[in-house]
Amino acid sequence: MGRKGAWLTGLLLWGLGLSVLGAEGLDEYWPLSQYQAMHPEQAQATQTLKRLVRNAPQPARLHQQGPMRIALISPGGQLSDYWRRNRLALERRLTQLGLDYQLQSYDKAPEQDERQQTQQLVTALAADPDYLIYTLDAQFQHKYIARLLSRGRPKVILQNITTPLKDWEARPPLLYVGFDHQQGSRLLADFFRRQAAGRPHFDYAMLYRSPGYVSTARGDTFIEQMRPQSNSQLRLAFYTQSDRASARQAALSALEQYPDLDLLFACATDTALGALDAIKQKGRQGKVQVNGWGGGSQELAALARGELAATVMRINDDTGVAVAEAIQRDLQGLPLPRVFAGDLVLVTPDTPKTVLQGLQARAFRYSDMEQE
Amino acid sequence: MPSSRPPTQRPLSSVLLLGLTVTLLLVTAILVFQTYRYARQAIDTQMEQRLAQGHHTMQLTMNHHLTHLAQQLDSLASQVEISYDLGTQSSWRLPLEREDEPKSLDFLFIAHQQTLYWQDAATDFFVPAGQLSSLIDQAEQRHRWYLVTLPDTESAPLILLLRQVPLVAPHTGQVLASLYGALVLNDNLELLQDLQREAQLQALSLEYQGLPLLTTQPQDSTLAKALSQLPAGTGLQAVGKHLLADRQPLWLDGTPTPLSLVAVVENRATPRLQEQYLHGAGIVLLLILAASWMLLLHLHQYTLLPLRRLVTWSRAVSAEDEPPPFVPGRIAEYNELGQALSLMVQRQKEKEHYFQDLLEFAFSPIIVWNARLQVQQCNAAASRLIGLTAQPGEPVFKLFPAEAQPALESSVQGQVCAGVELQYPNGRLLIWNMAPVRIGDQVTAVIAQGLDVTALKQAQRESLLARQAAEAATRTKSEFLATVTHEIRTPLNGILGMAHLLQDGPLTATAREYAQTIEESGQALLTIINDILDFSKIEADKLTLCLEPFHLPRLLQGVIRQLAPLAEQKPGLQLELQMASDLPEYLLGDAGRLRQILINLIGNGIKFTERGQVRLHARVLERQNQRIRLELTVSDSGIGIPPEAQRNLFQAFVQADTSTTRRYGGTGLGLAICKRLLDMMAGSIQLTSRQGIGSCFTVQLPLQLASPPAPSEIGAPQLDAPLSDSGAPPPEGVPSQLSTAPTADAGTAETRPDLGEPHILLVEDNRVNQQVALLMLKKLGCRVSLAENGEVALQKTLDETFDLVLMDCQMPVLNGYDATRRIRLSQPPQGRRLPIIAMTANDQPEERARCQQAGMDDFLAKPFRREDLGQCLAHWLDKA
Fold first, then answer.
1. What confidence tens digit (pLDDT) does each residue in B41-95 have?
2. B358, B359, B365, B399: which is closest to B384 by C-alpha?
3. Which of A23, A235, B205, B625 could form a disulfide linkage to B262, CB 3.0–4.6 angstroms apart?
């Protein structure tokens, strides 16, 4: 289904709720908590990796035949600086670990179409990398990754996903790494349920990113978590093109249809900023709440300005560091957990400044080095 | 004897347990194995069906999947907004940003003939750069799936299923191009997992031309490695312990492709079956062992324990002198055995006592020793006789002299040593018989019994000396008799010869009577001497039979003829000979002794018969092959013999009564000699007689038929039967029954043969005999030359020519035997053979044989009558 089709579907079938979203639901994934319950044998490895990530680097002084090749394909062009910081954290941790590596980075602009992204992947694979760090935020990527996993080379590290795919149990990627979207959405849902508690009604619209796993994990989990709140109702849902403009457009549409909306739930930073643009355009500041997702610099700034009602803040650099540590352990032949989820913290305008600063220092301990 | 190693002994209980357990185990093992085999076959069949069903399901799933993709392709082709102006379009503006879904075509492209118009993004991912045209080149018929391969630069070729559908201009119907849809099989784990899931398999592997492409298992897993090394071919194959694999080709449009699916199913049933059977077998084994033990306990309690008690009692019985009594138990058979053993032991003990008593009280020395030559028993007689003692267990050599050692050692080797004569230091001489006692092949003991022959040997020595003395005396007597006989016969020859010659001259009646009396007395004396000589020989066991062929009728006729003159002296007496018609001519036997018997019997008949007849009757009683039994009957009508005298008649020096001797004369040795001779010939003689009627002597003796002698033998010297029954057959006309009626004297001078005037050399040292022979020869018309010894005779034969030589044997200077040998040597071999006739007073077969060996031709026993000499001369001169 093309982009227009997705839009139309979102507009026409918003009232049907999860029945629409079920097609792209989470059935094919294991929720992280469930996966960890199913694999208690990985608890030790998970704790080890978490400890390594939090602690100072411990170079293994490996004897490498030559530089290992790492291909990193990330949506670095997004407004969220998560990907940029993530790459920096990865590179700097690898360097601190003393590993000989060549990192070829491919920034994937959200507006790139399938053909361009495919070509980007083909190009990256043509260099025969040892490790491919990739994301799974579009359906077409699924098939490519599946084939790569079947092939066994390069070793695939999937970023921004912490829910293992059921179909890939036989040939899983080396590491699912990221922040647990569902956990973040649950934190936000908890916050907004408390907001809704004292009101007669609490209507909200869902602003997805482009169709795919992230939209489903974040958006649908929020919807699911809000369902018990009886005065809360999802009025509209929109798939965007994962950029600020399409999000603003979708938010405007929502506000036009339901001027009394209490919340525009944004599944990403770009979406949140687009929603804020629309609210400002409609002059509905203070009337309609918007959330952030990720707690990047822009979100924190907007939070400080009182524009965002809340956000879940990722300890951003954890994932980059985790990837670097995972590569070292893989080279050492040491056990790795299948999933690494970075810490998420709910941040609101009420969060004390000192706490926020501490969180920021920890979250960007590698990506801010350059500034230092 | 080599010692064989005894077999390993095991308790009966262990043998029973082992046998029972092994048997039960074997039976159980066979049953378990058979049921396991059947169960295993059933499982295998089930697994085969399971795998066949899995392959069928996978094929259906694959077909369904391809159908679904074909529908996708058809749907896309119908949605294409065809631009009519192909020339103005650089690429197709197609609404093909299709909604991605898991089971969708991997990539799409549009081409017309060899021109590529459009390709989707995934094409770049799946198809190596520049190889899309190769796909277009391999295009086949539209609306069907076909297998296409592209060479890959790295490892396996790119294998995909391709399908094309036409793109048709809506208004014109023109086929503008083809829309191609592809399903890439390389690394298509999702497809493989779908198939695996649908078929409910444990694992699945995809192969292309036998080479593994992909497996649903992790690449570094053991199962993946095992599948990659699975041998080629179809059929069930075990993978590891719990898995079974089956390879079947993947079909496309009803045609098998080079692609194969290796389905793997879990086979828990077989290992579980094995486990259960092992478990069950273990339980059964334990049960069997338990049952065996229980059975064994039962056997032990009720069978083995009583048996052991019985064995213990048996040992006590064999070991103790006063064994405990047998106590019956619960097993009837054991009780019977025990009672039988008890009885046997009792009898054995009695025998032992008996034997011990026998041993102790035996007069013979008895010694028993074992195989190690250790004394076990030595009875009192042994100790007393040999003067040596040894306790049981001591070496048996203590009881025997040193020379007994070989016999003692042989005895324990199993040899019977009989008659071992041993001289003991105490002067005793014992003969030992040593008999080994065997049990099976082993000698367990030797029993030796001795015989004290000290006195016997002494007696034997004395007896030997006595016998030797007796034999010497007998020899001396015989030699004396022979000498006396010879010496008597020599003068007797003179007496008889002279008396005979005297009667030839002119005598008065009284003188003639005196001369006749002298001759008769001489003849009687000669007969007595001959009898005494024969009997002395018989007694000295020196008489031997000379077996030679003889003519029986001639012998009988000769006897009659010889005795006819005697019979003729009694006017009323007739001497008859009757011969059966089947009487054989030639027989093998001692003709001389047979004649002697007949002359004796007939002579007696003539002597004791005054008138009537004396008859000799000959017939064959039995004939079997070459042997006959001849019966000769001499009957007379004489005075007969009283019954009381008949009993001792054949004893020496016995006559019917003493008056007989006085009346008829004789020594009484004749019948005894006949009896002894017939005994030697294996014959018999019987007498029937009635006083006043007559007597009948029946002689039976076995003889062997003989062939007539060869002609050369006929002409040979006939020393044993001069002028008598041997040699040529009887002349024709001689009747089988000969009767001599009283006739004129056949032996007088008037009947002398006509010899002409032959030149005779008379060799004789005794003057009287020389004179007698000379006068007889002259009476016979011979010209006589005299020689007093052999040497003179030899010289005369060299100097003169003689027609015949009469040779005495015992002469001084050169005896007759040596003189004959030298005469024979001096004569030319081709010339006329000079007849040499022996004259000797020794009328014995040995003497005849000696003469023959010396080269003499005939034999005249002294004293001889002129008729005898005449007949002899006539015979040899005529022959010469």
1. 888 888 888 889 999 999 999 999 999 999 888 888 776 555 444 434 444 455 4
2. B365
3. B205
The DSSP code for B374 is B
In chain A, DSSP finds a helix count (H) and a strand count (E) of 15, 12
Helix (H) or strand (E) holding B529: helix B509-539
Whether B202 has its CB under 8 Å from any CB of chain A: the answer is: no
Q: Rounded distance, CA B444 to CA B411, Å?
A: 11
Distance between CA A178 and CA A86 in Å, rounded? 10
N- to C-terminal Cα separation, chain A? 47
Contact A319, A178 (CB under 8 A): yes
In tens, the pLDDT along A256-299 reads 999 999 999 999 999 999 999 999 999 999 899 999 998 888 89
Q: Tell me which residue of A372, A280, A336 sits closest to A50, measured CA to CA.
A: A336
The CA distance from B313 to B310, in Å, is 5
Q: Averaged over B440-457, what is the pLDDT?
A: 88
- Alpha-helical runs (H) found in B87-148: 121-126, 132-137
- List beta partners, residue A203: A233
Neighboring chain A residues of B185 at a CB cutoff of 8 Å: none
Has residue B380 got a pLDDT over 60? Answer: yes
Residue B680's Cβ-count burial label (10 Å; 0-12, 13-18, 19+) is middle
A254-288 core/surface letters (b: 16 or more CB in 10 A; e: else): bbeeeeebbbbbbbbbbbbbbbbbbbeebebeeeb
Q: How far is A263 from chain B, CA to nearest CA, in Å?
A: 30
Contact across the interface for B102 and A142, Cβ inside 8 Å: yes
Distance CA B246, CA B202 (A): 12
How high is the ipTM of this complex? Answer: 0.74
**Locate tokens 């001289």: which residue?**
B423
Chain B residue whose CA is closest to A150: B187
Residue A244: pLDDT band with limits 50, 70, 90: very high
Q: Do A118 and B125 touch (CB under 8 A)?
A: yes
* Residue B415, phi-psi category: left (phi > 0), alpha (psi -120 to 50), beta (remainder): beta
pTM above threshold 0.80: no
A→B contacts (Cβ < 8 Å), by residue, are: 1-3, 5, 113-119, 121-122, 138-140, 142-144, 146-152, 167, 170-171
> Do B183 and B66 meet the contact criterion of CB atoms below 8 Å apart?
yes
Could you tell me which residues come within 8 angstroms of residue B405 by beta carbon, excluding any fewer than 6 positions away? Answer: B397
* Domains in chain A with CATH codes: 3-25+182-294 (3.40.50.2300), 32-178+317-341 (3.40.50.2300)
User: Count of CB atoms within 10 A of residue B143's CB?
Assistant: 11
Residues of B in contact with A148 (CB under 8 A): 187
Q: Is beta strand A339-342 parallel, antiparallel or unpaired with respect to B612-624?
A: unpaired
Contacts of B188 in chain A (CB under 8 A): 147, 150
Q: Report the distance separating Cα B589 and Cα B549, nearest Å.
A: 6
